[in-house]
Each structure stands twice: as structure tokens, then as C-alpha cells.
Amino acid sequence: MSTAALEVRAVAKRFGALTALRDVTLHVDPGEVLGLIGDNGAGKSTLIKILCGFHRPDTGQILVNGDEVTLRSVDHARSLGIDAVYQDLALVNELSVYHNMFLNRELVRWPLLNNRKMRRRAEEHLRDMGVDLPDVRVEVAKLSGGQRQAIAVARSVYSDARVLLLDEPLAAMGAKEGAMILDLIRDLKERGRVSVIIIAHNYAQVLDVCDRVNLLQHGRIAFDKRAADTSLEELTDLVVAEYRRRRA
Amino acid sequence: MSETAAPARGLPVVGRALFDGFVRRREASVLLVALGLMFYFRATSDVFLSRDNLVNIAQATAPTAIVAVGIVLLLVSGEIDLSVGIVAAFAPFLLHFAIDFYGVPVLLAFLLALALAAGIGLINGFIVTQLKVPSFVVTLGTFFAVQGLLLITSHAYPVPIPEAAKGTFQTWLGAGPWASITWAILIVAVFHIILTNTRWGLHTISVGGNPVGATEAGIRASRIKIGNFMITSTLGGLAGIMEAFRINTIDPNIGGGTTLTFAAISAAVIGGTALAGGSGTIIGALLGALVLAELQNGFNLIGYSANTIFLILGLAILVSMIANQYLSRLRRAGRS
After folding, report:
1. B202 vs A112: CB contact, 8 Å cut-off?
2. ipTM exceeding 0.90?
3. What broad class describes the main subcellular location of this protein (chain B) (predicted)?
4. Whole-model pTM?
5. Residue B1, pLDDT above cutoff 50
6. Are the beta carbons of B279 and A142 separated by less than 8 Å?
7. What is the pLDDT, as a whole number, of residue A94?
8. Which of A94, A99, A108 sits opposite B278 (nearest CB)?
9. CA separation (Å) from B19 to B13, B28, B29, B272?
10. Contact with chain A for residue B75, Cβ under 8 A
């Protein structure tokens, strides 16, 4: 069996009296797309924030390509190839697409920017990733939510991210937009260079694009199956049954 | 969506493209206003475009434009500086102290005065970024502090230009008829390139447009902001020294220390710089300063009293801002 791109062993995290994560163990293989589902408050976002270096776990281990690491900061996690992509946080609306692609890694012909080179590389890379844009010189503000998300993902991949963490990448997005992002993820999967962890609420979409699904409940992974071995009904039943049990 | 625009055919298309490009430029509306005012005042007063009066307009435009360059950088990075006008009043005194009390050579004294001005910017920037106090409040504080320092050290009395600075130095740095506007245009050109075509400019836009995103991308926002505060203060000091050279006296009460600040902020905003951060234009600020100078000068020629001019100026700023808001909405509505 190949080494997991990212592995989490028995991670726990408390915030004061609140236990966000009790005992989480999961892994994502190279080139695999893992769907992470679970109710609000199950700890999904806490887990993502630990994986991207924002929070430190209280106990447990994180392994990148089989080596145990302590993620000191978001920057540190990124240097190890783990990158969380937030649609609205990532991009500067006032800048063009290609300036955003190269944000803080601008190509220069000192003292000026090398706009032509950045433009050409951004065009190539976006085309390569199948992201369809009329013109990379357009201000990001003028693009749709889906296009922005696509650019944010493309930028992470361009910066050699090996594990992408997508927190609700399809939230507040139309059907066509959502399909565009799903296509992008599928495309990434086919190339097998990048592993992806997606948090999503739409189980149909999760099953559609993910290789494997994990259900996070009460700070634990309660369910781990290949997408092909489960169904929309099973996932829905699991979450609803849990809800009923708690109410009873 | 992927198909590219049809290739241009013939002149009308080119004309259309030029027109579109023009309208989409932020500076377009304020350029039109500046030209409109020129025609209006030329029609009402024969001397408006005479050489002497053009010198007047140029000399009124220059200090505002120079300070507005810094203000644009600050506004774009999401900050403001209310103290720059009093730094402008203080800088020529620093020059005077250095030359007349300590016998420092002129050029060195000049650089020293600018360095001390930059130091005030450094203090502003440090308090804003490290101690997390809003720049509006910080620079209000430094405004009064520097004003106090200025009035104490100068005893609130004007002094003449130091003997050593007279002659070529004074002429080149403000007293010559076209000296200050030449400096202003040079400074505008350089900082326009910096804002639009260097990493510093992109990062300035980024920290103002999306502070969290910029920091996430590893941009050091504090460094950018402190730098812009220092640039603004330095430009304020330069404008103040040139203004003193022009009026041939160093006056601690010049403009109450606020006139230049407010004029520069107005110029920046009239020029199309958003107060919200993330977008702005330095050429627009120069044009904004020109519009302000034209208004003041033109209405003066027509014969309105200085008091009335303030009222007109205020209304003109409001009207041009409302028009600008309307135009930029049109621009945004235009297809990308």
C-alpha cells in the first residue's frame, strides 16, 4: 500500500470546555479525493483548520507523506504542500486574474513587474487546468463565484500544493458554477498529482466527485467507505438517524 | 465564453475601442472636468490662460498634487494621514534650524528635514500597524503633537528663508515659476509606475483590497503600510519646503496645518481614489489637484471673495464626487 499523502492519527482538540475533535483518524492517498461530511458543529472546519496549520491539535499526530510533522503555521503547512483554499479570502478583487495567480510571487524584471510573462504563464496554466476565462487581464471582481473559486484552486495547484483542502467549495454557487468546480476537481483527480479533501453538504455532489467518503460525527470519524460502495440513501440515513437518536 | 472578441474592422471599431478604453479609465471623468473648467473660465476671463495665471495655477496645483500622491498610496492601502499638512509646515522649520542654528550645509539640511518628516511617518505607521490604532485617530494625534512641537520651537513666528538656501537652491525647489509643478509631475510619474507596475504597488492594492487574503498570501502588510506612511510624510515635507521657498518665508501657521491635507485628500478622492481601499489612481489625483486649483483661481478671477470660494469649492467637491460615483457605476456596469 502506498504512503498516504496526508494522514491524521488520533487527533483531538478542545477549546476550553468544548471538545471539537475527540479522536480523529483519517488519511488521503496521493491523487485521491476524499469527501468529508457531517452535521454543523461536527468539527469539520476545526479539522481543516488544524490541517492547514491554523490550529494546533492538543494530541495526535499528523503525517505528510509518511513523515510526522508539527504544523507551526499556515505558511509552514503550505511549504509542506498543504493548502486550504477559501473562495472569498484568497483573491484580491481589485487585481487582475494573472496578478492574483502570482500574488506575492510576482515575476519581475527589476524594478518593474514582468506582466507579459505572468500573463502568458497564467493563461497557459489556467488552460492546462481547463479553467475557462475570457481574459486573464480582467479584474477578479468582475468574475463569478465559480470562476473565482477555480482561480483560487488553480493558484494553489500552481504553487505546488500536494493536498488541497476545500471548505464548502460549492456553497452559494449555481448549478453551472458548481459543475465547473466539480469538473476541475475531477480533472485534478485524473492527473493524480494532487490529493483533495472536500467538505460539502450536498451528498450527491460528494458521491459524484469523491473516491471515498468520511463522516465526521461528535469529533470522530464514524464512517469510512469508498464512494462506489455507498449511496446517497445510506449517507442521508446515517446523518438523519444520528439526528433522531440525539433528539430521542 | 471562450471565444475571443471579433477582430477589429475598420476605423469605427477602433474609434469605439478607444472611446470605451477612455471611458473605462478612472481618470477620464476628472480629466473631462478639468478641461471643462478650463473652457468655462477661459470664456469668462481673458487672463485665465495667460502665462502668469498658468504659473499661478501650476503653483497652486503642485503642493496639493505632491501630497495627494502619498494620500492615494495610503487610501489604497486602507489608511489615511491627517497629519501630513502639519508635517509640511514643520519641515521648512527643520531646514531653518539645521542651517541657521547648527550650520548644516543646505543640501544635507534639506535631506535631514525630509528624513525627520519620514520619521513622523514611521511613527504613524508603527502605531497603526503594531499597536493597532486606526490611522484616522493616530494621525489626528500626531497632527496636534507636531503642531505643538512646531509652535513651541518656532515661537509661532515666521522666519525668513535661510541665506544659504537662497539662489539656485530656492529657485529649483519651488521659487522658479515652473519648478514645483515640474517636481510634481515627476513625482506623479514615478509613483504612478510604482503603484501600477511594481510589486510594491500590487501589494499596496492587495493589503487595502483584501487584508486577510494579502496576509494569507504572505504579503507583509505592516511593511507596506509603514512605507506608505513614510512616503506620505516625506512628500509632505517636500511640498512644505517648496511652498516656503515659493512664498519666500517660513510660516508656522501656513494653512492652519490642515488646508494642504484636506486639499490633498479632496484631490485624491476627486481623482477617483476610493476611501474604502484597494483602488486609486495617482494621475487622477494630479488632475484632482488641478481641478481644485482651477476652481480657486477661476472664481477668484471672476471676482468672488475668498469666503464665497470656500462655499463654491465645497459644493464643487460634492457635485464632482456625486458625478464620479455615478460614472464609476456606469463603468462597472460596462462589460469586462
Report:
1. no
2. no
3. membrane
4. 0.87
5. no
6. no
7. 93
8. A94
9. 10, 10, 12, 19
10. no
What is the residue extent of each domain of chain B? Answer: 37-327
The closest of B116, B35, B84 to B261, measured between CA atoms, is B84
pLDDT at B335 over 50: no
Kindly report the nearest CA distance between residue B308 and chain A, in angstroms.
39
Q: Around A38, how many Cα atoms within 13 Å sit in the side-chain half-sphere? A: 26
Kindly state whether B328 is in contact with chain A, defined as any CB-CB distance less than 8 angstroms: no
- CB contact under 8 Å between B206 and A95, yes or no, is yes
Yes or no: say if A41 and A52 are a contact pair by the CB < 8 Å rule. Answer: no
Spatial neighbors of A129 by CB under 8 A, at least 6 apart, are A150, A153, A154, A157, A184, A187, A188
B186's CB contacts (< 8 A; 6+ apart) are: none
Are the CB atoms for B76 and B296 separated by under 8 Å?
no
Q: Which residues of chain A, if any, have pLDDT below 50?
A: none
For domain A6-247, the CATH class is alpha beta
Taking the Cβ of residue A229 and every Cβ of chain B, the question of whether any pair is shorter than 8 Å is answered with no
Q: Which of B203, B205, B219 has its CB closest to that of A94?
A: B205
| Rounded Cα gap, residues A30 and B50, in angstroms | 75
Per the structure block, which three cell numbers stand in for B247?
512664498
Contact predicate A97/A75, CB 8 Å: no
Q: How far apart are CA A190 and CA A186, in angstroms?
A: 6
Judged by DSSP in three states, A198 sits in: strand
Exposed/middle/buried for residue A172 (C-beta within 10 Å: 0-12, 13-18, 19+) = exposed
Q: How many residues are present in chain B?
A: 336
